[in-house]
Each structure stands twice: as C-alpha cells, then as structure tokens.
Amino acid sequence: MSGQVFPAVVAILFGAVAGLVLFVPVVALSYRRRGRLSVGRLGFWAASLVYFLAIWSYTLLPIPASDDYRCAGAVLSLAPTVDDVVGAFADGSPLTDVRLLQVVFNVLLFVPLGFLIRVVGRRGVVLGVLAGLVLSLFIETTQLTGVWGIFPCGYRLFDVGDLLTNTLGALIGSVLGLIVPARLRGVEKAADAGAPRPVTRGRRLLGAVCDVLGAAILAGAAGTVVQLFLQFALRREDLVSDGVIADVASGWVPIVVWLGVTLATGRTVGDLCVELRYDGGRFPEPVGRLLRFTGGIGGYLLLGELGAVGGILVIAFVVAWLVLLFTTPAGRGLPGVVSGRQLVDARASEPVAH
Predict the structure, then answer these.
(1) Contact present, 48 and 21 (Cβ < 8 Å)
(2) Does pTM top 0.85 for this prediction?
(3) Is 346 helix (H, G, I), strand (E, B) or coil?
(4) 166-189 burial, b for 16+ CB within 10 Å, e for fewer?
(5) Cα(344)–Cα(354) distance, rounded to whole angstroms?
(6) Which of 195, 274, 285, 287 could form a disulfide with 207 if both were Cys (CB 3.0 to 4.6 A apart)?
C-alpha cells in the first residue's frame, strides 16, 4: 500500500469506528438542538470526523516500527516549495507533476478547516487563517520533535512551505464559507427545536437503531473493562483466557442499564434520543414500562442470552418487530402492541390518557 493510500484508509476506518461510537449522542444532540436529524447534517458531521482523522493520519503516519530510521530534519526556507511550483509549470505538465500535486494537496488539506471555522464556529476570515496557522505549526512541531520526544528525532520533515500552503488552504476555506447562508451557520438551538413533530416510522426505526447500537457498544465496553480488571488488577490469566465473566458482563450490563432507564423514565435510550414515548394503556405505569422494555430492546437482548436457541428466537423477534413497525398505526410496533400503549412525541404537552 502506497504512502498516500495508507493514511486515507486509516482515516476512513478510524472514522467509521468513531462514527459508530458517536452516533447515539449525535442523534440525541441533534433532536435537542434542531428538533430532528437530517441526512445532510449527519453526513456533514461524519465528513468532519473523517477529515480531522485524515489530518492526523496524513501528518503522523506511518509511524516507524523501530528506532532504525533516518532523521528527517527541517526545511526552513520557502525556496523549495517555490521551486517545486515553478518547476512543475516549466516542465509543461503541471496537472500530473508530483511536486505541484503535493503543494496543492497541502492547500486542500486545510480548506475544510477554514470552512468549518466560518460555518460552524461563525468566525471571520482572520480567525480561520489563524487557526490554520496554529494547527499547521503544531503539526510541524510535532514532526520536528519526534512526536514531542517519543522518538529520538523527527521521522517526518518539518517544512515551512507546509506552513504557508496549509495556512493558504485555511484562508480559501474561510472565504468559501461565505457561500453558506447566515441562517445555516453555527450550532445554535433552533427556535422550534422543542415543538412536537409527526411520529414517523423512520423516526421509530432510528430510535431502535440507537438502542441496538448503544447496547452493543456498552456490551463491548463492559467486557473489555472486566478483562482488563482480571488481567491487571487480579492477575487472573485463567479467567481472562476463559472469558466467561467477560461474556456475562457483556450480556447483562446492557440489559440492566436499559431496564433501569426504561423503568425510571418510561423510555429506552433510543426513545430518549429521538424524543418519543409510549403513553396510555390499561396497565399500571410500572407494568406498562416493563412491557414496553420487553417488546423492544429488552426482548432482543434477553433472547440473545439463550444461546443457540436464542439466536433463532432473535431472528423471529426482529422479523415480528419490523412487520409490526410497518403495519401498526404510527409505527407503534411490537412494544405498543405488548404494552397496549400509543407512541407519541415526547415533546407533546398533553399525554395520552390512561
């Protein structure tokens, strides 16, 4: 894999993992700040995440596998950068000249930064340029110092030409940010963020995705914490290799947490994220909340703990859940059928009568 492709792959892979981890909080924040989640805004934040990871990967990777490498040194003059640009045009093939493409890439790498400073931060061109300069200087200094002393010397070249081209990119991005209408800039809370909105099946499905994804992340975290505790605190290699305790934690910690949240609020984590709730019904409130949990994420997680038989039951449960999602009014689905409750926007002022 070439030196240019490897950092890109790393940025995309790490961005995908980080995106999954941050998906649930992003959904919750979007519903509270904007009243909904749009595909465009979600794509914007995902692209921003990959972008900042790309800056990290392109400036620091590949990291040397050992101390057997040559110190890169520093270029303290702009002459090499100027010579590269002039030489590319002098040779008559600037569009394919590697020297010019490298300079252009250094400019383009910081264009999104200036754009984000202008659009998201609602700051002017001066601050956008200053941010580009400071970040570029930090990166170049990190390379010059061998990642601040981790390596004996810098394994990447410190180049003041990069400072210039990066800062130029931030300037271009800040100017391009002017094309975005002022009303779409910033992350201020929308005036109608707290207004009730129609309960759609897509919104209900998004809440379920938040439940499943959040529970999966918590399961992985719980198992990892248990393994680390057994490994480093108790020094029990046998329990680490056996993995039984970690499996129990991975399975039951999400169940306990989601059950506690549902009993306490009447809503699962996914419901809380997308501002939905189940209301009404003929059962007492605690029973209705328990049935809502069982008909949704709770049933999914509990069946998954039954081993091989549970796997088949989980598939049947998911199929039934999806069928009822698209065949019941407002997508109240299996949780609504089991609990006898109606699905409503949690921001509605008048609850459904019991």
Answers:
(1) no
(2) no
(3) coil
(4) bbbbbbbbbbebeeeeeeebeeee
(5) 13
(6) 274
Residues in the chain: 354
Spatial separation of the C-alpha atoms in residues 315 and 331, rounded to whole Å: 19
Q: In the numeric block, which tokens belong to residue 122? A: 């609602």
Measured distance between the N- and C-terminal CA atoms of the chain, rounded to whole angstroms: 63
Give the tens place of pLDDT for each residue, 5-38.
Answer: 666 677 778 777 888 888 999 999 999 988 888 8
Distance, CA of 2 to chain centre: 27
165: amino acid identity, one letter: T
Sign for the CA dihedral angle at 228, 229, 231, 233 comes to positive
Query: CA angle 271-316-213, nearest 5°?
Result: 35
If one counts every other C-beta atom within 10 angstroms of the C-beta of residue 87, the result is: 13
pLDDT in tens, 42-77: 887 888 888 888 888 877 777 777 666 778 778 888
Q: Are 186 and 122 in contact (CB under 8 A)?
A: yes
DSSP, collapsed to helix, strand or coil, labels residue 74 as strand
Q: Are 285 and 250 in contact (CB under 8 A)?
A: no
Is 124:131 a contact under the CB 8 Å cutoff?
A: no
Which three-class secondary structure state does DSSP give residue 81? Answer: helix
Of the candidates 37, 43, 31, the residue with the CA atom closest to the CA atom of residue 267: 31
How far apart (Å, rounded) are the C-alpha atoms in residues 204 and 189?
A: 23
SS3 276: strand
Per DSSP, the residues of 163-186 read: HHHHHHHHHHHHHHGGGS-GGG-S
Which residue, chain included where needed, has tokens 């300069």?
133
